[in-house]
Design a protein that fits this description.
Blueprint (H helix, E strand, L loop, with lengths): L2 H4 L3 E5 L3 E8 L11 E9 L1 H11 L3 E9 L2 H12 L3 E8 L4 E7 L5 E6 L8 H6 L1 H4 L2 E6 L5 H13 L3 E5 L8 H6 L2 E5 H8 L10 H13 L4 E5 L5 E5 L8 E4 L12 H14 L4 H15 L12 H10 L1
Parallel strand pairs: 1-4, 1-8, 2-6, 4-5, 8-9, 9-10, 10-11
Antiparallel strand pairs: 2-3, 6-7, 11-12, 12-13
Helix pairs in contact: 2-3, 2-10, 10-11, 11-12
């Protein structure tokens, strides 16, 4: 075990594993339009699997709770996740086929994605209860919305009851019950998701701290004490309502890179935040580390295979 892992509390990721069916093209098609592709690959993906791999490659002690089909895609996913040092003892085999994501990536690295749940749709609160051995050890429980809301809520409750930090990535966006918001310690959203959650627009990059502080107050009114709003190439904003926080609003600068494929960059960000929170970092420091990890993930094609390790991130931090 690396020194980084020895200093990191356990991270439990509960959620999805997908096979990514990715086609590369010069530009993304408009509705009703066909465009020519210039490459096709099948890679391991799924938001939760991606986040687990990202955290594992960055030195985290990670367990993944999920479900795959009894098929080649499921075997590929388990091998990829385990290869990053992630515990897969709670990844169950389902009679449903492994989930898939159909992804188109253009020449600028932008993408669009359609997912089919498959085995992910069978993950249930019973699977969460069956993973109590790792959830009881968790410093961070990382969640997204690619599995049922009942399962997400059960995992959040288990994390809360065990004293873990519950990190919720509100993606793909869906309305969540008030109980889940109350159980969430750190909410990770992009600007679009933040606006949907709050029911009104949020400030853009470069807006003064006072405007963002008003957004912080609105999240706090929902019972969410800490929020990370990602702004793509413009960095991110940390909104912190904890009584112990030194700054209510903190801006995190982006790491500038030449992006090749942005698929899974948000998951790299989430996994990196989870690692640094589990190590005891303040949220703003975790976000600064994650900003570099996510940027580096866009410099290679694919998702999990593109994720950086700790040395990659620290090297970039030393030279920036």
């Amino acid at each position: 075990m690396s020194a980084a892992a020895e200093n990191t509390g356990r991270i439990v990721v509960v959620g999805s594993l997908n096979a990514d069916l990715t086609i590369y093209c010069e530009r993304l098609p408009q509705p009703g339009e066909t465009v020519h592709g210039n490459g096709f690959v099948v890679n391991p993906g799924g938001k939760s699997a991606n986040q687990a791999v990202a955290a594992g490659r960055l030195g985290g002690r990670v367990s993944l709770v999920g479900a795959v089909g009894e098929d080649a895609n499921g075997a590929m996913l388990e091998a990829s996740v385990a290869g990053a040092g992630v515990d897969v003892s709670h990844v169950r085999t389902s009679s449903e086929p492994t989930g898939v994501a159909v992804i188109a990536v253009d020449a600028h690295g932008e993408n669009n994605i359609i997912i089919s749940a498959g085995a992910n749709g069978t993950l249930s609160p019973a699977d969460v209860a069956g993973a109590s051995d790792v959830l009881e050890q968790a410093a961070v429980v990382s969640l997204c919305l690619e599995v049922s809301m009942d399962t997400v809520l059960a995992a959040a409750q288990a994390g809360h009851d065990g004293g873990a930090t519950v990190l919720l990535n509100l993606s793909p966006y869906a309305e969540i019950p008030a109980a889940l918001a109350q159980l969430t310690d750190v909410l990770l959203v992009n600007a679009h998701e933040a606006a949907l959650f709050l029911g009104s627009s949020v400030p853009g990059a470069g807006a003064p701290a006072g405007e963002w502080d008003a957004v912080r107050e609105r999240f706090a009114a929902h019972g969410i004490p800490q929020v990370l709003v990602t702004l793509g190439s413009q960095g991110s904003v940390v909104l912190d309502s904890l009584p112990s926080s030194g700054s209510r609003v903190a801006f995190v600068a982006p790491a500038r890179v030449a992006a090749v494929d942005t698929t899974g960059a948000g998951d790299a960000f989430t996994g990196a935040v989870a690692v640094r929170l589990a190590a005891g970092d303040a949220l703003a420091d975790a976000a600064a580390f994650a900003s570099v990890a996510a940027a580096l993930a866009t410099t290679r094609k694919g998702t999990q295979a593109a994720y950086p390790d700790t040395a990659d991130v620290e090297r970039r931090l030393r030279t920036s």
